[in-house]
Amino acid sequence: MFFRRKRNPEDFAEEIRAHLALEADELASEGVADPQAAARRAFGNVTALRERSYERGRWAWADELRQDVRYGLRSMRKSPAYTAGAALLLALGIGANTAIYSFVEAVVLRSLPVPDPNFLVLFKWSAKGNPKVARHHSGESHTDPSRGNVAGNFPYRAFEVLSANSVLSDTFAFFGGGDVTALVQGRAERVQSMFVSGGFFSGLRLTPAIGRGIDPQDERAGAPGVVVLSYSYWQNHFGERADALGQTILVNNTPFIVAGVAPKGFVGLDTSIDTHVYLPLRFCQSVRSSFANVPDSIYADNHWYWLQMMGRLRPGVSLRRAEAALAASWSGWVGTTAETEAERANLPSFYLMSGATGVDILRFYLSRPVFVLAGMAGLILLIACANLANLQLSRAAARRREILLRFGLGASRWRVARQLLTESLLLSAAGGALSVCFAWAGMRGLLALAQGWQDVTFRAELNWNCLAVSAALTALTGLLFGMAPALHATRLQLASGLREPRIGRPSDWLRRGALVPVQIALSLMLVAGASLFVRTLSNLRAVPLGFNPGRVLAFEADAYQAGYKGEAMVRFYADLLDRLRAIPGVHAAAASSYSLVAGDRSGTSVSIPGNPAASKVRTSVMWVSPEFFSAVQIPIALGREFNDRDSTSAPMVVVVNEAFAAKHLLPGNPIGQSVRFESPGQPIASVVGVARDSLLHSLKSAPEPVVFGAYPQQLKRLTRMTFMVRSAGEPLVLASPVRRAVDSLDSRVPVLALRTLEGQIGNTIGQERLFAFLCSVFAGLALVIAVVGLYGTLAYGVSRRTGEIGVRIALGARRGRVVAMILRESVAMIVAGVAIGLPFVWFSGKVIGTFLFRAAPDDPRALVTPVLVLIVSALLAAGLPAWRAARIDPMQALRHE
Amino acid sequence: MPTRKEDDRVALLQGTLDLLILRTLLLGPRHGQGIARAIQQNSEEVFLVDHGSLYLALQRLEEKEWIDAKWGVSENNRKARFYSLTAKGREQLAEKTSQWRRVARAMGLILGPEEA
Q1: Which residues of chain A are within 8 Å of residue B1 when distances are taken between CB atoms?
Q2: Residue A702: helix, strand or coil by DSSP?
Q3: What pLDDT, on the 0 to 100 scale, is given for residue B1?
Q4: CA–CA dist A110, B19 (Å, integer)
Q5: Which residues of B touch A23 (CB under 8 A)?
Q6: Alpha helix segments (H runs only) across A801-859
């Protein structure tokens, strides 16, 4: 219909000419004077007819769009510097946002790579505080503002009870076993494990790459132990060969037969950790070292909360319905496990969460920080848009005559506005295309910076979603900064505009300068944020540790996983320490049950005989090697530290820190007092030393009471130890000698998590580091953009008012007054910007409050530096045009017309 | 300053103009100026065709393939584009003619006989 037999315009023009000739002939034959003119009069408006014929059946808007685009491209080519600068600015802003969006998606939005993830549900419970009925808890818990204390770990029996309820189509259980030692083809390696029930692979609808998944038959007592490998593990160690099936690998010294390989792309249920091996649930207690010495079966203990569970909803059954059914089963069962009134009073309540994103720990911890980062990037983009809008306005003002001419020739306001908008969109399209490079670079940079942030592997990638977001941002920014000049152009008046006024109206360009305060306000937010984050970081770095982490190399070794037990393990570790001390360049070596300031802690319950106030109190505990305190340089205030005489058979001794002594011990000399451990057997130890307080767990918490014990005297819980080696020089130089020392002792025990102690402590503040760095970069960028914008506006204003200023100077105004006049206007913009910005700074301070450390966001002193920085930079930017204005030669100015 | 729209006037005449053109071409091919003259004369100067609308109508009819066009030479050796009816055009002419006659008869019945 539209393109069928369109008339060639030239042909039509010729037909009209022929018509006019024929008509003229006839009129001439009728005796009409001047037949050509008469013919034309009779015909009417030839041009209008040709136009209407041309427009018939064509989409006028498509034609006009093509015109606009061609015109826009031409004007972009005419000012290449401006186009390049604007495109670059936009590319930075859009690229930064896209890069951060890729993180948002990886952390918050991405579902599990399984079929129908939205049908999956995660089992959780909530309670006020710690429910007493959960006597042991292996897993993570956190506080949800609406529910209280929440966690996802249940007793084993609960799994049996809840899976008997048929409201879900599948129910399966799993437990993240942490790292284990896998011995494959003679090589020992640390891998991440997960213990799963028989319904795990079928519940997730996973199709194994080869072989099969863990089946219910593997859960029968006495069935052979099987293992399912992850795809990447199979790639790396078996070269993707099918003969991997049936081979035996040793996991923590227990043999397992490879039964299958998980599908490619599935890396487990916890998005932060790649799982390498999947083992049947019934091996969890025997294989996992930290469960090793638990006296009772964790499967039978109704008070040991460890197992995580997920299920799949039946089609048509809502999450709430399933939750109600399962909650009924749960509350019926958990009530029977409570043995005391205290336990019955605070029973955990069951609830379901969507399991589409797997186990949600990462999302909980990281979603807010990631959104804060996204907010920062968004601010940059807004500033860039404001800047560009300003620039576009100035350019549109320079094209006033052209626009008014077009009005005079018959263009509608909407038509002209559309053309200006198209130019802006073209500019933003150029920036958007360029932004892909910046987005990629930014994402890579963020990944590198985020190393050590929560110890997580981020799977951020530039996929189609990110590109779609990028395109949307491009269009949005184009509209945002194109709107201003387009609207302004439509308000121009015809008659007065065509005349070039000698005197620039101040109100006119001040209105154009209205965007500068906005930029200043936004920059103030970023600068204030940067100053807060930098202060937080320096505060954290200045926290006194209580020990000396300098030049210390740390690593972990787990002899338990290689088969050592009890006394043999003690001898192994003692031998290892001797070998470490023998390495040239080593000043001291020591071991502890976990590392200082690594986010770990271990607690136990103790009582002080004779002190009724200190009965069954929970305290942190750490088991260390002889000469630990001198190795890490924690001063001993009283008494002594452990030595070789504190062996397994010797009387039990402990060293406490000053905080513990002050809080729990009886008044008087701490040395010689007793501490009773409330664990089976209730061993009593005597205090032989008091150490100065040191940080145990994190930089952000105050020193807490700690009991130190000698590790040979606690065989039951002894498994993995963290070793610290203080070197004379650069610690990483000792990396290979240390590996050789461990390997020479026993090649089945790998060196795990080799790092410097300073690096490890630094990683605990990885998020603060990331924020401080990024926000400072963004703040710097914002400041540059805002200052350039201010300079541009003022310079333009001065150039427009050259005539007026020339007149003033000619009439006797002193140069100083001219400078003051220009500066006054800039000060007005700066003050307006700061005034607008302060409430937003206050508001955003509330948002980022949880990420700060000893830096109060509403402290007025905190705002002084950012405001000063902004004012000084802005004044510097204003200074140059003001100085130039003062140097205007009145003769030149008046001649410039 | 948008251009004036003449579409209201044209809309009324569109249907009638098509019919007039088709009828004029029944007797043989003509060029555009000839069609305009013919309608003017045959209607005893009642219908004064606007040439612009005429050509737009001719384009419309050509697109619908009711008429055909070819460049040729006129009586006084001027180049001109001649239009002729197609078979489809003849059918349309017959249909529109009977429609129009029905309408005219109905009008006559309503208006009653002409007052002397």
Answers
A1: 407, 410, 412
A2: coil
A3: 31
A4: 66
A5: 33
A6: 802-810, 815-848
Instruction: Please give the Cα distance from B100 to A581 (Å, whole number).
Output: 116
SS3 content of chain A, % helix, strand, coil (to 5): 55, 15, 30
Banded pLDDT at A702 (limits 50, 70, 90): confident
Provide the greatest CA pair distance for chain B. Answer: 51
> Which pLDDT belongs to residue B14?
63
For residues A480 and A387, is the Cβ–Cβ distance under 8 A? no
B-chain CB neighbours of A42 within 8 Å are 51
Which residue from A minimizes the CA distance to B59? A7
| Separation CA A707–CA A699 (nearest Å) | 19
A239-298 pLDDT, tens digit each: 888 888 999 999 988 899 999 999 988 888 876 778 899 999 989 888 887 776 677 788
- Residue A566 has which token pair? 């009890």
How many interface pairs between A and B have CB atoms less than 8 angstroms apart?
65
Q: Is A149 left (phi over 0), alpha (psi -120 to 50) or beta?
A: beta
Question: pLDDT tens digit string along A597-644?
Answer: 887 778 788 888 888 888 888 888 999 999 899 999 999 999 999 988
Residue A208: per-residue pLDDT:
92
Beta strands per DSSP E along A732-887:
752-756
d(CA A117, CA A271): 14
pLDDT, tens digit (0-9, with 9 covering 90-100), for A497-530: 555 554 445 445 555 567 888 888 888 999 998 9
Query: What secondary structure does DSSP assign to A597-651, as a single string?
Result: TSS---EEEEE-TT-TTSSSEEEEEEEE-TTHHHHHTPPEEEE----TTS-SSSP
8 Å CB contact between A232 and A238: no
Nearest to A243 by CA among A276, A206, A210, A280: A210
CB contact under 8 A, B55 and A21: no
Residue A168 sits at φ, ψ, to 5 deg, of -100, 150
